[in-house]
Amino acid sequence: MQTDTAPLRVTLVVGSNRHGRFGPVVADWLLDRLRDRDDLIPDVVDVAETDLPLSMAPTPEVTAALASVTPRLASADAFVVLTPEYNHSYPAGLKNLVDWHFTEWQAKPVALVSYGGISGGLRAVEHLRQVFAELHAVTVRDTVSFHNAGGSFAEGRLKDPSGPDAAAKTMLDQLVWWGRVLRAGRDAHPYGR
């Protein structure tokens, strides 16, 4: 059996759109980890830069917003979803982006990175696992979480990167394995529900 070793197109979804959000700090750190790898080609979809309404009614504005996001999700081989934890779950803007799409997630792996206070966003991660399972996506087992995220970074840099860097390597190695296997599977047998 020959293994497909072409780089995976991975879309980093930045899942918060709140004013003053901390997500871009974590996203910049994560993008550096993604760009350091030869087996990943990163793209970023930021929910703060999408204009998807909460109403699921098709309008010209919705069509335009989807046209800027949907092809990027569809072309991804894998995803990394970055989420904070709001009220023991993930943000509404992220839920809205996920709900506007269906087939784009199917038979693709999703890695989860979270940040927050004492829980580090892990409750949001557990909720996202349920949602992505419903969408026929595979979440990788290992995650990266930042407990007390604001105190972990100084001037946009991690104070002690050793633990997060090791966790990111493990998570991304798993993402690449799943991404290659699922890409080969989709190529050999298109996924259908």
Automatic annotation (TrEMBL):
Source species, domain of life: Bacteria
Domain (NADPH-dependent FMN reductase-like) ranges: 9-149
Pfam families to which the protein is assigned, alphabetical: FMN_red
* Coiled coil (UniProt feature): none
According to the UniProt entry, where is the signal peptide? none
* InterPro entries in UniProt: Flavoprotein-like_sf, FMN_Rdtase-like_dom, NAD(P)H-dep_reductase
- Name of the protein in its database record: NAD(P)H-dependent oxidoreductase
